Amino acid sequence: MIPAAPAYPAPGPQTAVPQQQSYPAAPGAGGDLTPELLDTSVWSDQMIAAAGIPIVDIPFVTIGGGIGSFVTVDYLRIAGVPTQNIRILSNIDTPWQTYEYLTRVSQIPRSERIRSDSASRPDNIWGFPSYAMEETIKDKSLKAAWQVLVEPMFADFYTPRAGMVFENLEREAKRIRWWEMLVKGQVRMVRRRHGGGYFTILTPPDGAAPTKRVAYRSQYVHVGIGYPGLKFLPELQEFRTKHQDFHHVVNAYEDHEHVYTFLKSRPGTVLVRGGGIVASRVLQRLMDDREKFGLQTQIVHLFRTYVSGPHGKNAWLRRQGGNGFAYQGFNYPKSVWGGQLKAKIRKLEGADRAQAYKDMGGTNTPWRRRWQAQMNAGRAGNWYHTLEGVAEDVTIGADGRTVSRVKFANGQISEIPADFIIDCTGLEADIREHRLLADLMDHSNVGRNPVGRLDVERSFELKGTANGEGRVYASGSPTLGGYFPGVDTFLGLQVAAQEIADDLARRGFAKRIGPGRSVSQWLKWARNQQI
After folding, report:
1. Are 254 and 105 in contact (CB under 8 A)?
2. Average predicted confidence (pLDDT) for the chain
3. CA-CA distance, 188 to 435, in Å (whole number)?
4. Given the DSSP bridges, would you call strands 198-203 and 186-193 parallel, antiparallel or unpaired?
5. pLDDT digits 0-9 by tens, 5-28
6. Which of 189, 221, 217 has its CA nearest to residue 62?
7. For residue 522, what is the enclosing H or E element?
8. Where is this region: Disordered (predicted)?
9. Distance (Å, whole) CA 320 – CA 328
10. What is the pTM of this model?
């Protein structure tokens, strides 16, 4: 799994993380999962009682507590669902905690800009005012507004600062009373219940409950756990395991500040691997430090696939490229969120849908003027070097540095020494690597979609999990490959949440967000009126 964030500082002066929920003592057995429960796919209330596990009744449960859970709960609160009907089961204190950790270690602190559109606001389902408009008002400057007006022809795409995103998420979390619904703990599994609905098994923190497990009995479950985990390239994983060296070979999504600290103390060489947005951010950090502190850092950038110019199968599926990178403003073409591409993929099945994802997929990064100028300076100064090839092995050299054995595109083999290797390939673990998802696949008829992730309906209901009137929904990265692309983006999470809220409204759980409710609720949002 993605590593949990370190101890998180206080989210803000008015943000209070609640005390742990208290649970009634359970009679009978010791309050833990029994072999019978582990081996049975559909549980009865009597089985839970026999195990001594206390039961908490709640209509809707969301698992994860990150931004996927946040956006879904935000829609439901705006749709009139009271806080007493929702519980958020999570091992983190704030919905942006894991995301902020990942952005920070991948060299996007609060002061830097993330890769997201101006109107993609997870704190504001209407997208108005946009981030650019808010920045224009706060900074009392027309720079952001002008950038949006002339992008991308005369300026880079506008993207918001990470800090602005987190501050607005905190504001909305307080407004919808997020912490009244939050229950801390680790979700172990979700199982179907005899008679309909589900049991979600939570392991509370030590001392928070009289039993090891607590069962949440609900009619609806939302799975919003985010990325299943990180996966290292085989040769890097082998090196780390063999030498127990987690210092010289690091993943960009791990905390690796020690690399930059070392380079400030003496000249060194860094091998950067990967060609996406994270590689761009790592390069910029290395180059910024080199410029700011007068360092002598040498950067070797290894691309598995080197993009030398515009590429694509036809004129309608072509993106710009050069110097190794494929350039694209955002993760996906904008039409996936509300244009022809969205409508097209919503109709595709099987191999046709998989091919469509392949056609528009691939590693890419935005074209940014500052990055281009820095890389041009590095090439001219002979301290930034790009290579195309495949690393077949990583060892420790006689001088204690890493040595990568690389096979180049022309078949030649060379050894590249470096003080550090930063892996920016961004490989994700298979969905079965996550214990909760593996259990759903084993016991709740959950299958894979055409690209190997969780198979969901157009409403984001997990196929095969319906149980009486009960439904399980899922959104975010584990559902990539479904009827809607872009699920692992801010706007994609909002589209998923809207589909889920609409489906729940059809089932009578929430009110429909029609024009009247939408306008009245936006006015409450604009006044920051708590709901």
Report:
1. yes
2. 91
3. 7
4. antiparallel
5. 333 333 443 344 444 455 555 555
6. 221
7. helix 515-526
8. 1-31
9. 7
10. 0.91
